[in-house]
Amino acid sequence: MNRVLRHAVLYGMMWASVLVVLGGVGTLTGYVVLRGAPALGGALFFGDAPPLAAILGEAPVWEGIWPACAGTICLVGLTMALALFPGIGCGIYLAEFASGAAARRIRTALDILAGTPSIVMGLSGFALILLLRRTILPQANTSLLLAAGCLALLVLPVLVSVTCEALESLPQELRLTALALGFTRRQMAWKVLLPAAGRGIMGGVVLAVGRAAEDTAVIMLTGVVANAGLPAGISETFEALPFTVFYTAAQYQTQDELMRGFGAALVLLALAALLLALARLLDAGARHRWRRGGSV
Amino acid sequence: MSIRSSRVAVAVRQLSVAFDGRWVLHDVSLECPATGMTVLVGRSGSGKTTLLRALNRLNETFPRCLTTGQVEIDLGEGLVGVYPSAEGEKIPVWQLRRRVGMVFQTPNVLPVSVFDNIAVPLEVVGECPRREVAERVRAALVAVHLWEEVEHRLDADAGSLSGGQQQRLCLARALALQPAVLLLDEPTASLDVRSSAYIEVLLLELAVRYPLLVVSHNLKQAMRLADRLIVMEEGRIRQDISREDMQKADIAALLQ
User: Fold this and answer.
1) pLDDT digit string (tens) for B129-155?
2) Is A184 close to B94, i.e. CB distance below 8 A?
């Protein structure tokens, strides 16, 4: 009897845990969708401005989130441009070439970087600008480039570890085959392993893009503002979706503004969900490929 | 019929190999002629695969491997030592492996198309001029009787071929690099009877042109194929039997 009771309690707790998770996610997305959906439409993005002219930057957008969307796209693009090469490169080095001691040191550095709170990353970017202003570059200011640089540091550990894992999870037989064919280690890494791990690495890139798109703490201190319009250049301030959501929630004055905030939250949520789905799809594709390959 | 020639293509001299301080091969010496099939048999753990992998220095890709003794292979200009030694010049390991073709127990196709499985190693390792690649891929596929089966699906994923076709593709990949020696590690172990028979016919054809060293798990197969049978036990060569003596020797008893 005692055992049956214990079993039932454990079973009940397990289901309760599942419900808490599902309930939490459901309430959150349900709330954002319910409040944000009515705001969706051309007006949410462009306000009163004609859409085509607004997209081309010919008409200013005063009451829409298009500048924030454009800012997020530029920010993410620049972040990935800065982070992709060192991230994937470091991953390849770590998985294929680093000796034991070097690998341990790099992994420790990456762990520290991965564990750094994003607000600290933003603060260090802000401190860098202060230092530059006082020393060699008095006109330095927070900007798109600085924000992208700090975000690149934030997503770097994700890129490195995903690249490393994608390479390490390749079957040992593949390496043996390449070596037996006479590939040098470098040729093997570039011509055999990297293409084979490509989909796994792509999954990590998408995750990094999602992380860069949704982070607020870093950009708050490094260049995002509420009313910058479309991004004018990498040394200018900019708008971004997550900051628009934050700013509207804290400072809204009319009901319309609040609705726009919810709309922006929904757009951001949809963007994140889309990226996550894409990452899953790529990952599943990579696994499927190996199972079908029949390698032991 | 014996197709053994008198020229020596592979000479193994006092070869010993250890992994993690445990000796797997003990003082093995062996010579193989320039054509014909030498088949290695023995129970699992007798050192057959290690001996095979010592010839293209593949054992070294595993951690804590120690090799002593020497292996000499004729890569076209007489016998050269493959392991570094005080006297003779040392050939780069990638160059050695390029000229020593190897086929594994499970068909290890690269995760690319049928064409690229041969073309990529040809271009990268074989330094084959781009305009010659297509022709050499075709020639290699013809040599393993695979061309007619894959002619219209060269762009298909190599993993979509049957096991037997994949193994022939691996053989074609090795042949495309114009090997001096072919090493085959239980090439039919993962195949069905029909595919195995096909590979066996292919190996007999190749044995006329190349020196073949084949590890076999199947004694009947070994007897069908071998110009010479090497029986291994606990890392040593127990018997070295020529084709002529094969009928007389009680080989089954040797493997007990």
Assistant:
1) 888 999 999 999 999 999 999 999 999
2) yes
The domains of chain A, with CATH numbers, are: 65-293 (1.10.3720.10)
- Asked if A175 lies within 8 A of B94 by C-beta distance, the reply is no
Sheet order of strands, B211-215 included: B100-103, B181-185, B211-215, B36-41, B228-233, B236-242
* ipTM attached to this prediction: 0.88
Closest Cα of chain B to A182: distance in Å? 4
- In 10 A of CB A81, how many CB atoms? 11
Nearest to B56 by CA among B103, B100, B24, B15: B100
B chain contacts of residue A177, beta-carbon cutoff 8 Å:
104, 108, 110
Looking at per-residue confidence, does A5 or B253 come out higher?
A5
CATH number of B8-254, picked from 3.40.50.300, 2.60.40.770, 3.40.50.2300, 3.40.980.10: 3.40.50.300
Flag whether residue B177 sits within 8 Å of chain A, measured between CB atoms: yes
Output the pTM of the full model: 0.78
Annotated domain spans of chain B: 8-254
Residues B14 and B29: beta-carbon distance below 8 Å: yes
Q: What is the pLDDT of residue A295?
A: 36
Range in A236-250, A275-289, B50-64 with the lowest mean pLDDT:
A275-289
Check A182 against B61: CB less than 8 A apart.
Answer: no
Q: How many CB pairs under 8 A join A and B?
A: 72
Give the span between the Cα atoms of A78 and A236, in whole angstroms.
13
Which among A187, A195, A292 has the least Cβ separation from residue B112?
A195
Cα dihedral value A81, A86, A91, A93, nearest 10: 140
